[in-house]
Amino acid sequence: MILWTIRHTKPYNPKDVCYGRLDFDVSPTFEEESDGALKALVAAGAKPTRLFSSPLLRCLRLSEKASAVVNLPIEKRDEIIEINFGSWEGQKMDAVPKEEMAGWAADLRGYRFKNGECFYDIDKRVESLLDTLDDDGEFLWISHAGVIASLQHFACGLPDSEFVEGAFSYAMVTKFEFKRNADGHYRGTYTKIHDGIQMVPLKIG
Questions:
Q1: CA-to-CA distance for 194 and 49, rounded, in angstroms?
Q2: Are strands 74-76 and 197-198 parallel, antiparallel or unpaired?
Q3: DSSP states of 30-76 as a string?
Q4: Rounded Cα–Cα distance for residues 202 and 166 (Å)
Q5: CA pair distance 35, 32, nearest whole angstrom
Q6: HSE on the CB side for 11, CA within 13 Å?
Q7: What contacts 24+ positions apart, CB below 8 Å, involve 155-160?
Q8: Which residues contact 122 (CB under 8 A, 6 or more apart)?
C-alpha cells in the first residue's frame, strides 16, 4: 500500500500562539506553497484513488486544490486531525506554566496536555484509519505535523527520542510504503518528497 501525505501550508497566526485544534485559515503564501507541493506530488508519480483530509480549514483549503489535481472527492476524517493541546491552545508558548512545559520536555510524546491529548493518542486514531485501507491501494492524506510524525513513529519505527513534529516544513510531501505485519497492522518506510516553507522550530523546555 502506498500513502502520500501533505502537511497543510502555513496557517495565518499573526499572534504566534500555540495551535492544534484552533481552526486557522491559510497565510498569504498559500498559493505558492500549495502549488509547489502539488507539483511535487504529481512529479513523483502519485496516483491516489482516495483523498482524505483533516476537517480543519488549513487542510481543507489545500484539499480543495488537490481534489482538482487528482480528480477525487474529499473525504473528511476526524482521525487525522491535529493534536488537541488542551489548555495550551491559543496561548503564547512563554505563557505556558513552567511546570507543564517541564513535564512535556521530559516526555515529549507521552505527556498529556491539560484538557487535551498526548501524541500517543494520535497514534491510536491514525492507526485505526490506516488499518481500514486496502492492501494494494494508493491514498493521499492532507493533514498535520502530529499525524505525519505519528505515522513515522508507530508505523515506521522512528524512536520517540526523535521528536520531529516541531521541525517539519509547511506543505511537506511524504511517501509511505506499507505492508501488513503478522498482527494485521501496516508497517513500512517513508521518503520525504518535497520540502515547503520551513517553520520556526518549537522551543521546548
A1: 21
A2: unpaired
A3: HHHHHHHHHHHHHHTT---SEEEE-SSHHHHHHHHHHHHHHT--EEE
A4: 5
A5: 5
A6: 22
A7: 155/127, 155/130, 155/185, 155/186, 155/187, 155/188, 156/187, 156/188, 156/189, 156/190, 157/187, 160/108, 160/109, 160/110
A8: 83, 146, 147, 150
How confident is the model over 52-64, as pLDDT tens digits?
999 999 999 999 9
Give the predicted TM-score (pTM) of the model. Answer: 0.95
Does pLDDT of 182 surpass 70?
A: yes
Residue type, 73: P
Which residue pairs from 124-128 have beta carbons closer than 8 angstroms and sit at least 24 positions apart in sequence? 125/78, 125/79, 125/80, 126/79, 126/80, 126/150, 126/151, 126/154, 127/154, 127/155, 127/185, 128/79
Spatial distance between the Cα atoms of 149 and 122, rounded to a whole number of angstroms: 10
Cell numbers linked to 15: 499572534
The packing angle between helices 57-70 and 30-43, to 10°, is 40
Among residues 160, 169, 164, 173, the alpha carbon closest in space to that of 146 is found at 164
16 Cβ contact list (under 8 Å, min separation 6): 92
Can you tell me the distance from the alpha carbon of 145 to that of 8, in angstroms, rounded to the nearest whole number?
Answer: 8
Q: Are 191 and 174 in contact (CB under 8 A)?
A: yes
